[in-house]
Design brief:
Order of helices and strands: HHHHHHHHHHHHHHHHHHHHHHHHHHHHHH
Helix content: over 70%
Subcellular location: Nucleus
GO biological process, one term: protein import into nucleus
Distance between the termini: 88 Å
Radius of gyration: 33 Å
Pfam families: IBN_N, TPR_TNPO3_IPO13_3rd, Xpo1
GO cellular component, one term: nucleus
Protein name: Importin N-terminal domain-containing protein
Length: 575
């Protein structure tokens, strides 16, 4: 009978051979069942010596799985020799030209060995691993060590429902004790003359570990170094990813001083960010990553951006303004979303949160914050009609894909949501700006583009349900321009939706309602606008039945009857 290692090798080759071979299923079942055998502990090492990558990988897989499920099969007097064998294999497969997937499997195996050994069998196991694999400073050893450190947090996250579930607290405690060693080791690599691949691996490892570590004071020099690496074109993406992971750690609030230092370091990159955004060949993916970092930092600092700003001290004022100015640059990026830019939408979550914080303050503090941040908030309001604007009809039809059109429509919905947050704290300023912009469009020598007008009518719907005595005049001004509106179906639909949203206001402004009612009734009979007109008319009937009862009922009935004629013709059965 053939040795078990030979049988397994043949089965693996068969498994990864011709998928149409009927023996593949049988080989797969046998390979799964054989993993229960104690004999595979020794067979795994034999498979790792084979030439075929798939066979080597299966050997590492066997070892990894046995360490998860069958630790009790390892005699105590063999713990150290098993550890040595895994170390040796990691060093071997860390060398250039060796398959990365085998190295990863072996690193997972070592992590599982480490977890089993904590804390009594192998005290300070993680620190020992770092010292063992980094002692020679060989690039190959560093590669293996960084891969091992990268998969360790991933294995911990997966441990909630496997053999380590019962000792997660112990493992986490050991991980916490090793953090200073791990982060210090990674910082040394980033400061060294190591190869680009090694430094990239160090950053990926750091991203993996950042979930364990909020902005601890001990990380001050490492965080500063990461901000310096933003200027390295080869490392900037990974550096941003690490910084974002650090600032989004749920425990950051425990370290306000470290968060403030992080904010100041980010503010110091204002020129770098401006250069990035102004680049004619702008890297949109990099811009989006940077936007996420600025947004998440602002979200983490959101309470200090409001609670720490007061009339008594200006200690945090400049820093807060600088942070919001940075964020505003991404919100106001020129061009249409999503074809020209993809950053503005990322920032919306912060602005909603920020405005909510302002609204939650007492009235006197609200007024102070609105005055203090007036320049920022006015700029935010001013960008709304620009960002909500449709592209030209030619672009929309010929250049935009269906997915891009759908993204834009979702983006407008998010603009609406943000508009609701703004108008709660800045209702007057919001409506005033939209009304003034609309008036300016019609004051020029040439007629306005329908896209510009439609964007404003779309946004005015946000405030239509909360009109005050101060803003009522702006809506009257808007409605007075309706007869001069450009002819366009999309614009007409937005106008009709606005009229429907104004139903409650019309109840107290009957003269205005009677002036615009003919427009609604006329559009009931236009096939492309019937639905929009009917919805607007329904809303008005619900809120303004008293006004309508005193109007010319016969003209209303006739308009409704005329609108039903096309429907009657479509549904009637020929005699």
């Amino acid at each position: 009978m053939e040795p078990l290692a030979v049988q397994i090798e043949k089965a693996v080759v068969q498994l990864y051979g011709d998928p149409s071979n009927s023996d593949v299923t049988a080989a797969e079942k046998w390979l799964i069942s054989i993993q229960e055998s104690k004999e595979v502990w020794s067979v795994a090492w034999q498979l790792l010596e084979r030439d075929r990558v798939e066979v080597q990988n299966f050997g590492a897989l066997l070892l990894k799985n046995k360490l998860l499920k069958s630790w009790n099969e390892v005699p105590e007097d063999q713990y150290e020799s098993l550890r040595f064998q895994i170390f040796q294999s990691i060093m071997k497969f860390s060398e250039n030209g060796q398959p990365k997937m085998v190295l990863t499997q072996l690193c997972v195996a070592m992590v599982r060995y480490v977890f089993h050994s904590m804390p009594t069998v192998w005290p300070n196991a993680i620190v020992s691993v770092v010292h063992t694999l980094s002692s020679s400073q060989a690039q190959a050893n560093l590669s293996g060590l960084l891969e091992l450190l990268k998969v360790l947090p991933e294995e911990f996250e997966a441990s909630s429902d496997n053999a380590f579930a019962g000792k997660r607290a112990i493992i986490r405690s050991e991980i916490n004790k090793s953090q200073s060693t791990v982060f210090g080791f990674i910082e040394q690599i980033l400061l060294s003359n190591s190869s680009l691949n090694i430094r990239l691996s160090a950053l990926k490892c750091l991203t993996s570990w950042s979930g364990f570590a909020p902005l601890l004071p001990e990380l001050r020099s490492l965080v500063s170094l990461l901000f310096q690496l933003l200027h390295d074109q080869q490392l900037v993406n990974d550096s941003i990813e690490v910084l974002t992971s650090l600032i989004t750690n749920e425990d950051c609030y425990k370290y306000p001083t470290a968060v403030k230092e992080f904010q100041l370091l980010l503010n110091s990159k204002s020129d770098f960010i401006q250069t990035l955004l102004n680049d004619t060949d702008r890297d949109n993916d990099l811009c989006s990553m940077m936007c996420v970092l600025v947004t998440e930092t602002s979200v983490t600092c959101v309470k200090s951006l409001t609670a720490d700003i007061n009339q008594e001290t200006t200690e945090n004022c400049e820093e807060s303004l600088e942070t919001l100015t940075l964020l505003l640059r991404f919100t106001t990026l020129p061009g249409h979303y999503p074809t020209d830019e993809k950053c503005s939408e990322i920032t919306f979550c912060f602005w909603e949160r920020f405005l909510g914080e302002i609204e939650s303050e007492e009235v006197s503090k609200q007024e102070f914050l609105l005055e203090f941040y007036e320049g920022i908030l006015v700029s935010l309001v001013e960008i709304f009609p620009i960002k909500a604007r449709y592209p030209s009809e030619e672009e929309w039809v010929e250049s935009w894909s269906e997915d891009e059109q759908d993204e834009f429509m979702r983006y407008r919905d998010e603009l609406w949501d943000l508009g609701e947050s703004i108008q709660l704290t800045m209702h007057y300023q919001f409506v005033h700006h939209l009304s003034l912009t609309l008036s300016n469009l019609f004051s020029g020598q040439s007629p306005p583009l329908w896209q510009d007008v439609e964007a404003i009518l779309f946004l005015l719907q946000v405030s239509a349900g909360s009109i005050t005595e101060d803003t009522s005049v702006f809506f009257q001004s808007t409605l007075s321009l309706f007869p001069r509106m450009p002819s366009n179906n999309t614009l007409a639909k937005s106008a009709l939706r606005l009229l429907g949203e104004l139903a409650e206001w019309f109840r107290d402004s009957p003269d205005v309602l009677l002036a615009v009612l003919p427009m609604i009734l006329d559009n009931l009979s236009k096939p492309t606008l019937t639905a929009s007109a009917a919805l607007a008319f329904r809303d008005i009937c619900g809120d303004c039945h008293g006004v309508l009862a005193n109007s010319d009922i016969s003209s209303i009935v006739i308009s409704c009857q005329l609108s039903l004629i096309p429907v009657f013709h479509q549904t009637s059965v020929p005699s």
